[in-house]
Amino acid sequence: MTKEQWGALQDTLCKTLGENNYKTWIAPLEYGGPANEGVVVLHAPTGFFGTYVSQNFGDVLLAQISTIDRSIRRIQFDVANRSAAVSSHAAVSAAPETRVDKAMRDLPASDLLPDAPLDKRFTFSTFVVGKPNELAHAAARRVAEGGPVTFNPLFLYGGVGLGKTHLMHAIAWELSERNPELRVVYLSAEQFMYRFVQALREKRMMDFKQLFRSVDVLMVDDVQFIAGKDSTQEEFFHTFNALVDQNKQIIISADRAPDEIKDLENRIRSRLQSGLVVDLHPTDYELRLGILQTKTEAFRAQNPDLEMDDGVLEFLAHRISTNVRVLEGALTRLFAFSSLVGKPINMDLVHDSLADVLRASERKISIEEIQRKVAEHYNIRLSDMIGPKRVRNFARPRQIAMYLCKLLTRRSLPEIGRRFGGRDHTTVMHGVKRITELRQQDSQIDDDIEMLRRALEA
Ligand SMILES: Nc1ncnc2c1ncn2[C@@H]1O[C@H](COP(=O)(O)OP(=O)(O)OP(=O)(O)O)[C@@H](O)[C@H]1O
User: Fold this and answer.
1) How far is the CA of 223 from the centre of ligand 1 (A)?
2) Are residues 180 and 36 part of one domain?
3) What are the contacts of 89-94 at 24+ separation with CB within 8 A?
4) Domain co-membership, 193 together with 309
5) Are residues 131 and 276 in the same domain?
6) What is the pLDDT of residues 173-183, one digit of tens each?
7) What residues does ATP bind to (predicted)?
8) Most CB atoms within 10 A, among 35, 156, 191, 404?
9) Mean residue pLDDT across the chain
């Protein structure tokens, strides 16, 4: 068989074996010329590769080759220039095929490594940079430029919803844009484990290893997931080392620093620390406001009719400090509500549509804090606030404090009563009712309470 004949056979092989199999296993083979009589040599990139092709596609290859050159009876797989590293009699010497073998052979090898999809919205252009994330952003940018690998791995960590996944996807998009040939694989540590277990179950560990070792950039999200999962850790470690040895870029994310991940093997921990470890700090007010403004502008570009009162974004940035995901969700909900009811976004709409989010993100205020603040405000001693005296000077501030406890904490009436010198829950109920009435009637009390509430929530 000549080189030209091998070239001419490619289309048929692609059709016979399917595009996936063809691209993964056949296209990388190089024609190596005839060996001795009846034997043709094909060069495979690695020994494993040759063995795999020989075992899984040897018979088909031989059958196709013999349609154009009937003298060929055997294919010999060499590893590039190392001769006879792998040789095969292909179909001739193959062990009888079992049903499982057949099913496995029919599955495209790339089944074990479908990339997790990348979110189109997660790019550098949509990532808002502020003090808390500027270092992580700069490191991600650097890696996304491609070129020589400077830090390996890049380890990004931070609390929930602070933008780790966003940055990883942004790197993947940018790298693929700069070099579409690059094999960039992004997946979560959970998916890595799942594929590993699948490969074990289907006896396709060689596929698994080969596929993971053939990527150019590997990104594993939420790596803390593999802690305590011994075999997955082991496999991850080997994959990691193989890629680092080949100078391939690895990017890892986790919800905490490597040395804080419990049940992680020490050798993995130290490997993870060997590159650049950067963290995404909790957001600050400016970053939250920047994110809200950017997202609102993007929304306004699609919906020019959007009306929003001044101060709404500032209020949200101030009140929702948990994480960016919650912040984004709140904004999306506001947009949806406003378009459903056909009203502009103002503070009333904020309170109506986001009551639960605002409640959940409320700072936890303690009964004691309330008692202290109210006592201070009315210039009485804490012991008098809690004690048995019923004179108006103490009783009114006590009722106000009870009212604020009901309003600002999740404590039950009996619990509040207990904390006010062991009073009964009906006393608390009465106090709350009285202050609710007074707020309607007495603007001084109403102002006082509003001021106290703000001071406590600040
Ligand atoms: N700096 C930022 N600029 C714009 N959007 C951001 C920023 N940080 C986070 N986000 C958005 O917040 C949401 C949550 O971010 P992401 O999924 O990247 O968080 P994560 O750190 O991976 O969280 P988890 O630990 O839950 O996986 C995403 O929609 C993301 O686009």
Assistant:
1) 16
2) no
3) 89/58, 90/54, 90/58, 90/59, 90/61, 90/62, 91/58, 91/59, 91/62, 91/63, 92/62, 94/55, 94/58, 94/59
4) no
5) yes
6) 999 999 988 88
7) 161, 163-165
8) 156
9) 85
Which of 313, 340, 360 is a domain's end point?
360
Confirm or deny that 161 is annotated as ligand binding: yes
Q: What is the DSSP letter of 204?
A: -
For the cut 80, the answer to whether the pLDDT of residue 113 exceeds it is no
Q: Is 180 exposed, middle or buried (CB count within 10 Å of its CB: 0-12, 13-18, 19+)?
A: exposed
- Residues 273, 298: one domain? no
What pLDDT was estimated at residue 316? 93
Q: How far, in Å, is the centroid of ligand 1 from the Cα of 323?
A: 8
Q: Name the domain count of the chain.
A: 4
Averaged pLDDT for residues 236-242: 92
CA-nearest of 219, 220, 226 to 261 is: 226
Expressed in angstroms and rounded, the spacing between residue 164 Cα and the centre of ligand 1 is 6
Whether residues 337 and 302 fall in one domain: yes
Q: Is the pLDDT of residue 91 over 50?
A: no
Q: Is residue 264 one of the residues assigned to a domain?
A: yes
Q: Provide the sign of the torsion angle of the four alpha carbons 306, 307, 310, 316, taken in this order.
A: negative
Tell me the residue type at 135: L
Looking at residue 278, its pLDDT comes to 95
| Residue 278 Cβ < 6 Å to ligand 1 | no
Give the end-to-end CA distance of the chain in Å, rounded to a whole number. Answer: 82
Annotated binding residue at 163? Answer: yes
CA distances from 25 to 53, 55, 99, 244 (A): 7, 12, 22, 24
**pLDDT tens string 42-75:** 988 777 677 778 877 887 788 788 778 878 888 8
pLDDT band at 133 (very low <50, low <70, confident <90, very high): very high
Nearest to 137 by CA among 118, 120, 158: 158
Q: Nearest residue CA, atom 4 of ligand 1?
A: 127
Residue 160 lies in a domain: yes
